[in-house]
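Table S2 (text version). Query chain:
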Amino acid sequence: MDKNRAWDLLNEISFVRVAGTKEELKAANILKKAAEAAGAEAVIEDFEIEEATISEATLEVLEPEYCRYPVIGIGKTKNTKKEGVVGGFKYLENVKEANLADIKDKIVLMQGRVRPDMMKKIAEKGALGYIMIGGDFYEEESIKNELRPSNAFGKDNPLPGLRIHIDNAEKLVRSNPTKVRMVFRNRNKKGTSHNVIATIPGTDLKDEVIAFSAHYDSVPYSKGSWDNGTGSVSIMELLHYFIQNRPRRTLKFIWCGSEEIGLVGSRKYCEKHKDELDKYIFNINFDMTGVTLGYEFVCCSCSEDTLHAIQYVADLENYALSTELGTYSSDSSSFAGAGVPACTFARLNPRGGAQIHNHHDNMDHLDPDSFMITINFVAKFADQIANAPVNPIPRRFAESVQKKMDEMKKFMGRDEKKDKDKKDKKDKDAKPEKKEKDK
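Corresponding structure-token output:
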């Protein structure tokens, strides 16, 4: 493995590459070309995404004193009428019954993420719309204008949604508004994103597969050098390593598009390849490595045995690793949700350190030597799995992990039983009725 080669590739893909854009496709082609130059076969798989185009998003206090606040819209939420919706105002500290008693005909300000079940609850109580808080009190002014665009989770969201910076949210609450108006207009359109997949066939155990993954898209405003150019380059270096050290098991290297809009690329990959996933014994995902000031971390969505095995190897290698059993907000969660034991490696920042999801996510706080710390360990650990005589990864999940995966599906607005029932009904309706045989 070569830190200079990795650093050069990281520089090359450090540009804004938002899901579904020509820049994302440009990055996909760079990664495909690099994988082929390393000696692997690589393909680009396109998949469809839904993009929310927002044409109008405004928030005004009408009474007691007029004021207009800068906001952005939350995609895939309900449109207001052209003239907007007018109502009272309520700050919801949390979605407790005591806070919900008087929200009828009001626009509510909410903190934290708004889950589909929460949105449904406030809609049933008669709220007219909601506003989410984003940002940080202590950000520099240039970042305060970079509120991260987002879409609501789930489908059929019953309320219009806006996002406001926390500075303005505080001013809004202190003004004690009695009448506010929100206007929100958006439409969904189909777009195209891309996964890049390179394969190293195994030798005598080629029917078993280890998947390495990392997302390569970024958010608006951000070059995404740390999040997640570093992860993308990490699995490229592992590709180089295993080209030179052929494994017994087959290895897949998957650069996922559209992670930043809801892990879409990895979910689409798992859906497309669902008939093959019983052969996948483990997913090793990377999301943000290489920061100069940071610490090594792994989140394991698998069995306790596997987590202990990772920690054991880390101790043998004198690799200072913090471990956690649970789910991670990255592509490993898609594989785990599809039944494949998974983990995400990261090198996380100390408080006040490097930043992501704004224009400060560039090469400034990254370092090629720090970058190799994670890769060197994972190469040793993955080499053992790739060449073990028998599969050492149990295909089961710790009870706490399973609980978190179920919670994540609920948060994403996914009800698998309901979806299956709908699909079964659709299939049944599509089948022609059988005619009785002539007697």
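Notes on Table S2: Residues 225-244 form the longest helix (20 residues). The domain at 3-50+191-400 is CATH 3.40.630.10 (Aminopeptidase).
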